[in-house]
Amino acid sequence: MRRSASVDLKRSPHGSKSSFQELLNGKWRVLTSPALLSSAVVSALGLFMLINLCTLAMRQQAMLDIFNLPSSSSSQVHVSIKKATGTSNVAFRSDSAVQDALPDNQGNQSNRVVIGTQTLLGPECKNLSAEVLPKLQLQQSWKPGRFMQDPKMEFALVTHLGMERLDLLALQCRAWMGRVAAVLYAPMMKGKVVSWHQRLKGRSVLDLNKVLSSFYDELDPLNSCNLEMQLWTEEVESEVLGTLLPNGALRNLALKLANTEVVVLADIHELPSLSLSQELLRPRKLSMVKQILDEGVAMLVPTFATSPSLPAEEGSRLARLLVSGKKEAVLKAWDEGKIVIPDDGHPGQLSSRAIDHRAWMRAETNTYEIEYEEGFEPVVLVLAKDVTWYDERFRGPFGARTAQALDMSQHLTFEVNPLDFAVHIPFAEPEHVRMSADAVYDQEVELYAEVHKDVAASKYTPIARESCTLEKHDIYAPPGFQPHEL
């Protein structure tokens, strides 16, 4: 039995604007020969034809630089540059309907001029422009096996992070016995890192590779996880955009990196208890878990946070202590008021309320089923084959995880692990980073409303590279279109 609560979608999005720059800045010149002057008539005629030929070539090149013409019923042709933070349109006049400029699927192309191409997602992904997907570039990979043969594992902790959070990755690695698949992200502007961390700001990719190699080599192979990590970069248009991680795309990359039968999905500030990975390392226990999961179950791990009344350093120390212990230590800390249900900024604490923490405290050895609630963002143990891809249109901390949980709730039963848990590690975040996230919150809510509507209609496909096909389309000039109108 699953139900969905209503969601407040009354806010209007903050549209951000992108600039469209002309790509054409060519130069040409007409070359003449003295031999042409032997005949005044031939010279004038030849010069006239040459100038017209060069002019036509220039106009043809200008048209080839036009791209991304979306379908529309307007009588103007629009060049649309879609970003995760909004859409900006540049229009130019046309006496014909826009559909005449789009690919001709009727075979009537023999007398048409191709003025460009555009890449669209397939019909299962609404034929959106491929520009909605972040353009990430793999820079470097680090694999285990430096001191011993890389063991083949059937489960992995899957996470992602900005370069500023390496300290949290170290904590996660020390709290987990087994494979960790971590994707790291660095936004770039003109080849330099965009970061609020002064030690990273302005560094090159080569510098980042050195920092990460040093970090990786300093991990104790006998007292830490089996870590595989990748560094991905993205060229961004502004420092503000650099603070909004493409979380959906990064989570998908981490899922691919894991390449295991069973995965634990958690954010970088969430430390799963050591007992969870210890149990999964036992072949008999892992086999029992897989049998449960194979029945269409996603096993949820309750999350707690240290009390905000504790100083950050003391809270971090308490979190590390709790995840190294058992459930009894969590119950004791709860009774003492040292831990709380994570505060997600909503009065109902929707991101974790569905877990029913008090039911978990009473539970002994049996899992218990819960109903999905709108806004749920659980730490989840699940078969990799049952994980739906994250929607890559979401940037920043809101939306991607919530939409994925909604999607998975349509085909999986949610049951709570009665013994294991996770604890949020407190961490500082600069004010401007929080402001950037707040600035796009309304837009993310609007996007989530679209996802919610599609899921309710059973026609949702996550907008992601792994779930959408890509189609190249020629763009034809409409009949009667005049290049000089550019």
UniProtKB/TrEMBL annotation:
Signal peptide: none annotated. The chain crosses the membrane at residues 35-58. It comes from the Eukaryota. It is a single-pass type II membrane protein. It is found in: Membrane. Its main location: membrane. The keyword Transmembrane helix applies. Keywords: Glycoprotein, Membrane, Signal-anchor, Transmembrane, Transmembrane helix. The keyword Nucleotide-binding does not apply. This is G11672 protein. The lineage of its organism: Eukaryota, Viridiplantae, Chlorophyta, core chlorophytes, Trebouxiophyceae. The gene is g11672.
